[in-house]
Amino acid sequence: xxxxxxxxxxxxxxxxxxxxxxxxxxxxxxxxxxxxxxxxxxxxxxxxxxxxxxxxxxxxxxxxxxxxxxxxxxxxxxxxxxxxxxxxxxxxxxxxxxxxxxxxxxxxxxxxxxxxxxxxxxxxxxxxxxxxxxxxxxxxxxxxxxxxxxxxxxxxxxxxxxxxxxxxxxxxxxxxxxxxxxxxxxxxxxxxxxxxxxxxxxxxxxxxxxxxxxxxxxxxxxxxxxxxxxxxxxxxxxxxxxxxxxxxxxxxxxxxxxxxxxxxxxxxxxxxxxxxxxxxxxxxxxxxxxxxxxxxxxxxxxxxxxxxxxxxxxxxxxxxxxxxxxxxxxxxxxxxxxxxxxxxxxxxxxxxxxxxxxxxxxxxxxxxxxxxxxxxxxxxxxxxxxxxxxxxxxxxxxxxxxxxxxxxxxxxxxxxxxxxxxxxxxxxxxxxxxxxxxxxxxxxxxxxxxxxxxxxxxxxxxxxxxxxxxxxxxxxxxxxxxxxxxxxxx
Length: 490
Fold this sequence. Notes:
This protein has helices at residues 8-29, 35-40, 47-57, 61-72, 82-103, 113-118, 121-154, 158-206, 210-220, 239-255, 258-266, 270-304, 311-314, 317-328, 333-368, 374-402, 405-430, 437-457, 465-489. With 490 residues, it is mainly alpha-helical.
């Protein structure tokens, strides 16, 4: 029975959270008069809201539960993952210097409109279409993963979990547009950070010996190791993979992805967008440190025999924090942590719906149907929001029937590769002498073939695929353009 395993108080908290997010959408519905408001909040959003929205959007449910697993891992758990966050910070500075200024010129509603100005509509629609397909697929998988976690937490039916989460996210995004998304992002950020901090405090209080024992046991197990300067391309958490791969990945995800770019377009000024973007890197770094320390705390409890769990859970690092939430936290905190899981998921999903609708309208519909009344475009935008929401629910439902989690992790990894390819197009457009549109498109296709070919045939660690996608796209396009130009001069 749905909700049967949840105490009443925790059920009230979880359901109350869902109702509250929908209420925010209803509240902002009356302000959605045109596409400018619906997609970019009238370009009047303050820096704190932009900052919270950026951080909440890139924090998924998988991150919320997997990062503690990296700290807990009895064999290899430590702080090496934090090396990636230094690359994430560097990538944001590159975006602020290289890509952000071009988004502040004009009245853009889609990141890919820049590509039409630099090349032509073919390049614009190719990049936008790639974003739409991979975003819908990846976030449909995230919806399924969240539903799996809810099933573990509360005993909910998997299809009902998918439907409830999907429909709730569609409703408040459909009604309130980007303003509702950003304000709920703020609420969701507060909820999941509060839940994580509360869990960390409970874990520390339950360790016999407190902070001193936490440090002592963690040091003895090598849990506080932070640096690895080896140059092994098969290992994801080294200094070089973190700095180089993380920088390319962050530059791509925050500089060439509609879901993030749309937040900069909402800002009241270029300075506001830049400060929010730069600050978000340090907030994300602190956030990952908190999650990793939670995992180390769980390891200490487990090592001392205070935290007991089945071997099937202990051998699946990603499941440890979820098991602790359900079986060891007091009533009230269980509801807060379930709301935290919901908030981490819904912040990403709602942003995905609104940004997908914006890309579909501005990159595909308006060029085909120019000159329509703005109310018509607003109606199409809301229809698109609903359509992409239904598509994500469908992907999640198919995954529930046909796929297992290991396959989903592979699919999400493949989807992540595309950001580097799209970044290559943006960098080609920033050259003083841009390549031809045909060369850019061929470079994109060849870059994709190189990335996926190496993924299939090598053990290359995932942080390297973003720089590989970018470099191969730029290199192939530039080489083809150079050869064609030389041939035409002969």
